[in-house]
Amino acid sequence: MPVVTFKSFPLADKGMSWSFSGADGNAIIDRGGWSLFKQVHTWFDDSEGSTPEVKSAYKLPHHKIVDDEVKTVWRGVTAAMSRLMQQNTQIPEGDRRGCYNHLSRHYREFDEEPPEYGRYTDEEIAEWLERWGYSREEAESLLDNDGRQALSRKFGEPTPSQLEKINALAKRPLSKEEVFVFSSKMVGDAMIYHPWPVSLHKSLLEVFKQDALTGVAFMLDHSWAGLARPKPAYAYGRTFDARLKKGDMEGENWALYGDVYIVRGKEKDGVSTDAIIADIEDGTLFDVSVGFGNSLDECSICGNNIWDGSKCEHWPGQMYDNQLCYIIAKPPGYLMELSGVFDGAYPSAEILSATGGSTDFGEFQLVQSFTKFDRPEIQMCRVYSATRGKLLTFAKQVQVEKKLFALGGQLLSKESDLKVDKDKVYTQEEVDALVKDAVEKAQAVTAFVTKEQATEVLGKEYDADTILKLAKEGIQYREELIQDTIEWGIRAQGNDFPADAWRQLLSEPGRTIEAIKAFREGFKKQAEAAIPAGRVSVPTAKEKLTKKLPDEAFEA
After folding, report:
1. Can you tell me the distance from the alpha carbon of 314 to that of 410, in angstroms, rounded to the nearest whole number?
2. I need a labelling partner for 500 at 20 to 30 A (CA). Which of 89, 142, 148, 548 fits?
3. Residue-wise DSSP of 87-110
4. What single-letter DSSP state applies at residue 3?
5. pTM score > 0.70 for this model?
């Protein structure tokens, strides 16, 4: 079989452009003869021997000399795969699978998943290329002229392979005229800093991918949690395909992308699918976020379940030996749904400005302030918006009633401080009363520091006046750091940033200076990524207040 045996070469920079000219071929032959020329291709015509000395006998090149070394070029690999999968490919049918296996191994060298084996239209291949970083113009130039007319497909119209996948899920055959399709980035593994640092492990993204492939509901406003609209949870569409891709932003290694179909001409609870489609087309409905659940939130410091107060004593957002503690969300878990969220309907600002540890959403409670639970198997449900970079965590009311409440980063003993009767079922009002009583008792305790304790902490002996002066300066520095962090949060997230809630969170007694700095750096990275280099920054609120108009401005 004239399929070239796979050989691994060093990888060229992934963003490198691709071409294979006559000069490139000559350079290969000069370097290693026809044997090397054969190795940089995928297939050859063996009618004139095992290594023919005719350039036209070789097809699908994807290696070339880069910086005086033969390397594998990512865009060469994708170009070869695209040619192989075209309807009018020149590779014989009996050799296509072997060529596919060869190129697929190169895909995995670049940490990418190859497309499924088959034959595809030029429009479908153009979609792949766009997902892999090609512009539309580059994708079109890669394909044969005879196939370019197929690239004029209207936005939202399914390709033949997409329609096939949709009909594998539907209970009746659907035509391409009946359905509207769109793709979106759902979630990735980059650190989410709002309201506390969380990273989704790749294994959980793999679970979400499988759920999306089997089809999860496309909804509006995450209505299962009672967000934005007090309406029943209706599905207006369904996912039918999904894929994991290498991350496209700083700090992101993997991201999950999904495809959704919506059937035209339907109406549920006064909302028509045609109206939803129109909002997607004109950009009114642009934020897509995921709802998911998982049972294991691992502590990045100790590796235990971070919600289990009996096994983990660390708190997300705080520093331990110069390491930021954060949550690693892992399986078991599941993807519940994908929701379209209208601009302004996402309730983050209103929710996070509320006081206390949770906000009531009927069956669910929004867990606003991190809290340790006495039930390590507690199931968390979450909503994540990639566009806004925010994560909301929910727990069922019945689970939240059995939590250990945290004060200033310390756990209250449920046996002594909370006086909980294990045999009694408490209402939420009774739980609130217990917590209120424990808080009052904690606030009533007066702590004194001895001279020896102060010397041990500060490293040297100071008189009382000096200690008070240092404490005052430390408090002032902390307040300025909190203000600076909030201002960076506003720059990163705009008017939606819940400044009051963040001030309360950062001002907690147990919040270390290192943890506040970590939050500030997180917001700073978000802001710098959002604002292009050279753009003039908007002055902060503090700067606006200090600027005065000259007296001449008021002269007639």
Report:
1. 10
2. 548
3. TT-SS-HHHHHHHHHHHHHHHHHT
4. B
5. no
